[in-house]
Automatic annotation (TrEMBL):
Keywords of the record: ATP-binding, DNA damage, DNA repair, Nucleotide-binding, Nucleus
Full protein name: DNA repair protein RAD51 homolog 3
Gene Ontology terms: cellular component: Rad51B-Rad51C-Rad51D-XRCC2 complex; Rad51C-XRCC3 complex; replication fork
Cell compartment(s), UniProt: Nucleus
Ranges of residues in domain RecA family profile: 106-296
Source species: Hirondellea gigas
PROSITE patterns: RECA_2 (PS50162)
Basic residues bias (residue ranges): 359-370
GO biological process: meiotic DNA recombinase assembly; reciprocal meiotic recombination
A Gene Ontology molecular function term of the record: ATP binding
InterPro entries xrefs: DNA_recomb/repair_RecA-like (IPR016467), HR_Repair_Mediator (IPR052093), P-loop_NTPase (IPR027417), Rad51_C (IPR013632), RecA_ATP-bd (IPR020588)
Domain of life, per lineage: Eukaryota
Region Disordered, residue ranges: 350-376
Length: 376
C-alpha cells in the first residue's frame, strides 16, 4: 500500500524536493531507477538509494513508526551521515568460548582443486567467513572465482558443500562459456569418485553431476555502479532466505565500482565499512563463504614501491583471510597474507583449460634418450 512521504523518516529538505517534482507517495518512485531519481531531484546517488530503499520496503511491508526510525538510521549510512551498519549489530547474549571452539572444529571448506592452496588455507575457503583474493589483472582472480563457484557444488559424500552460489559480477568478467568449460572438467573428476564411494559403501549409485546442473546453480548478478552494488548486498539476506542451498557468495570485484567513486574520501570509507559489516554478518548468520576479489594499487616510499590491495587500510580489516596472487617469473603463486589460524605461506598454481590446478615443475631428463625409453 502506498504511503505519503510526509510519514516517512526523511529529511524535510528531501520531502520538499520530492513534492516539488511531483512525488507524493512511495508508489510514485518505486518504478524509478536510482540514477533517474538522483538526476530528477538533483541529489546524490546515495541519497536516491536511501529514498528507494525506504519507499520499496514500506510499500510492501507496513511498519511501525519505531521500525521506520530504525530503518532510517541504518539507511543513513548510505549517505554518509552515520558510521557503518555494523556498529548497530548487537547481541543480547554472549557466546561461550567452548561453543566457539566447537564451532571452529566443525568448520567446512570449499576446495580450490589446487592441493597446495587448500593445504595453505587449512582445508580450503572457509564457510562462515569473509575471504579476500587480490592480484594484478590477468593473474587469475576471476578464474579462481569461477572454479570456486563450481567446486561449491561437489557432493556431500566427497565432503563437499553441495550448495548453490551467488556470483556478483561488477566488471563484466564472468564468462558463461568459461564456466561451462570448468564445470565439464569438474564433472570428469567428481563423478568417478562418487561412483567409487557408492560402491565401497554398498549404496545405490546417485544421479551423476552434470555441467548444466552446475551452471543452473550459479546465480549471476551484473552490477554497473557502486549504488547497485550496495543495493545488491542489501538484498542478499532476503535472497538467501528464499535460497537456503546457497553456500558461497562471490563479489568480483569488490573494489572496481568504488575506484570510480565521485564523493569524498570520508563518505567512501563509511560506505565501505557499512558493506564490510553487512558481508561479515551475512557470512556468520547465514553460514556462507563470502569471497571478494580485490584489485591492487601501488604504494610508494622513498626507497621503493610495492603492490598492495586496493581500498586502503580500513578495508583490510573487513576480511578474515587475505590472499595475494603474484607472478614469480612465469609461475603463478598464491601468498597467504592474513589468516587467524594458518602461518604465512606460498602456494604455486596454474590455470589451464580445466580450471585451477596445482603446479608441479616437470623434472628434466639427464639424458635426451630417456624421454623415449618407453618406446624401446
Amino acid at each position: 500500500m502506498a504511503r505519503s512521504f510526509d510519514s516517512c523518516a526523511l529529511p524535510l529538505s528531501t520531502k520538499l524536493k520530492l513534492r516539488d517534482c511531483g512525488f507524493d507517495s512511495t508508489e510514485d518512485v518505486k518504478e524509478s531507477s536510482c540514477s533517474e531519481l538522483a538526476t530528477e531531484l538533483g541529489i546524490t546517488s546515495a541519497d536516491a538509494l536511501k529514498i528507494l530503499e525506504i519507499a520499496r520496503t514500506q510499500d510492501s511491508h507496513p511498519v511501525s513508526p519505531r521500525h521506520d526510525a530504525v530503518r532510517h538510521v541504518v539507511l543513513r549510512g548510505a549517505s554518509g551521515s552515520l558510521p557503518s551498519s555494523s556498529a548497530a549489530v548487537t547481541s543480547e547474549t554472549g557466546v561461550s568460548a567452548v561453543d566457539m571452539l566447537e564451532r571452529e572444529k566443525g568448520k567446512k571448506y570449499i576446495i580450490t582443486l589446487c592441493e597446495r592452496i587448500d593445504q595453505m588455507l587449512g582445508g580450503g575457503i572457509t564457510i562462515g567467513e569473509v575471504s579476500e583474493i587480490c592480484g594484478v589483472p590477468g593473474i587469475g582472480k576471476t578464474q579462481i572465482g569461477i572454479q570456486l563457484a563450481c567446486d561449491a557444488q561437489i557432493p556431500a559424500c566427497l565432503n563437499g558443500p553441495e550448495g548453490k552460489v551467488v556470483y556478483i559480477d561488477t566488471e563484466g568478467s564472468f564468462m558463461p562459456s568459461r564456466a561451462a568449460q570448468i564445470a565439464h572438467a569438474l564433472v570428469q573428476v567428481v563423478n568417478p569418485q562418487v561412483q567409487s564411494h557408492a560402491e565401497r559403501k554398498g549404496e545405490p549409485l546417485p544421479k551423476p553431476l552434470t555441467a548444466e546442473e552446475i551452471l543452473h546453480n550459479i546465480f549471476v548478478f551484473r552490477i554497473n555502479d557502486f549504488v547497485e552494488q550496495l543495493s545488491c548486498i542489501e538484498m542478499l539476506p532476503s535472497f538467501l532466505e528464499q535460497h537456503h542451498e546457497v553456500c558461497l557468495v562471490i563479489i568480483d570485484s569488490v573494489s572496481f565500482q568504488f575506484r570510480h567513486f565521485e564523493a569524498n574520501f570520508n563518505e567512501r570509507t563509511r560506505l565501505l565499512m557499512r558493506m564490510s559489516g553487512q558481508l561479515n554478518t551475512l557470512a556468520h548468520e547465514k553460514e556462507v563463504a563470502v569471497v571478494v576479489m580485490n584489485q591492487v594499487t601501488t604504494k610508494f616510499s622513498r626507497e621503493d614501491s610495492v603492490l598492495i590491495p586496493a581500498l586502503g587500510e580500513t578495508w583490510a580489516h573487513a576480511c578474515t583471510t587475505r590472499i595475494m596472487l603474484e607472478w614469480h617469473g612465469t609461475m603463478r603463486v598464491a601468498r597467504l597474507l592474513k589468516s587467524p589460524s594458518q602461518p604465512r605461506n606460498l602456494a604455486p598454481y596454474k590455470i589451464g583449460s580445466d580450471g585451477v590446478r596445482g603446479f608441479r615443475p616437470k623434472a628434466r631428463s639427464k639424458r635426451r634418450h630417456n624421454s623415449f625409453s618407453g618406446l624401446n
